[in-house]
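Support reply, case 0932

Customer input (verbatim):
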Amino acid sequence: MRFNCLRTELSNAVSNVSRAVAAKATLPALEGVLIKAFDSQLEISGYDMEIGIVTRIDASVIEEGEIVVSARLFNEIIRKLPNEIVNIETDDKMITYINSGSADYQIVGMNSSEYPELPNVEAVSSLTVNAELLKNMIRQTVFATSDNMAKPIYTGSLFEIKEGLFKIEAVDGFRMAIREENVESDIEAKFVVPGKTQNEILKLITDNKKDVDIIVGQRHIIFKIENYSIISRLLEGNFLDYKMPSAASTEFVINTRVLASSVERMALLTNEKIQSPVRCSISSEEIKLSCSTAVGRANDMIAVSVIGNEMEIGFNNRYLLDALKNADTDEVKVMLNGSLQPMIIRPVSGQSFTFLVVPMRLAAE
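Our regenerated output:
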């Protein structure tokens, strides 16, 4: 194999693809990237048996071929080469020669036959979504996925498309995030995408004006983002079917930033070792917030018009802040049904997003 290409394009491609490379694997080839040179382009792949990232860049291919090289080492070498033009050549012994300006490297590669094949995804259904819309929907929900492998299904988000409505749901047992938008599609599909895959999608969407093609198979899914393809396994299992209450016994509209800032002030007295709920005492005209820990006590008050019952409820500050920071409106509607039921946070009008935060039990003061 022999080719030359632009260092910047190669470096960006290898850097992005390397995020799907296994840090430590029983199969050494999985710690590398697969490079294929053919026609006038390079195809570069990274794969850890759960998620794969593939891209193509332009190159001047003198001799076609393919090889696997260490992702970490190859990435560092390409990134630090002195010139913009990179010349790469391999021989029969899998030695890879890298030249750019005055710099020369020789590194040991592996035969491409040792690299596992990426899944061949046969489309069951497909959908095209605006990149900015998909990015916002994932950003506003992926924070609520679980990192507890005891229930793997909740380490991902439920994607559902039905009657032109595209919905993403995430839940981890302490909070829930739901985001929905109307899309031009007549397909009906339901599948669970791992949180790791979604985070890679967020990193690869750079041009928000373009579309993302989503190809859904039986067990795998492909997200095509510009010249990148993310191939991921789907999670199997029964996802939570939560029935949202139709009414609230207590509700109010509040400035999102004002409430978030107040919760942040209460959170100054907590950390990973010192946990205590933020206590919210809700009356008809105000919300009193307080937090008491071994470090000290904090109090704050927000004037707000409350409809319904007065009540007292406690929350984990981080979970509540995650919801408020991912709300994309200046004001939110907060709905409550007693001190033991989840807080529901929605836009003032419509329900493009819905966040649920499970309360913490309060000790008597």
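We compared this against your earlier run and they match. Two observations from our side: Helices lie at 7-17, 71-79, 131-139, 195-204, 256-267, 317-325. The first helix runs from residue 7 to 17. Please reopen the case if you see a mismatch on your end.
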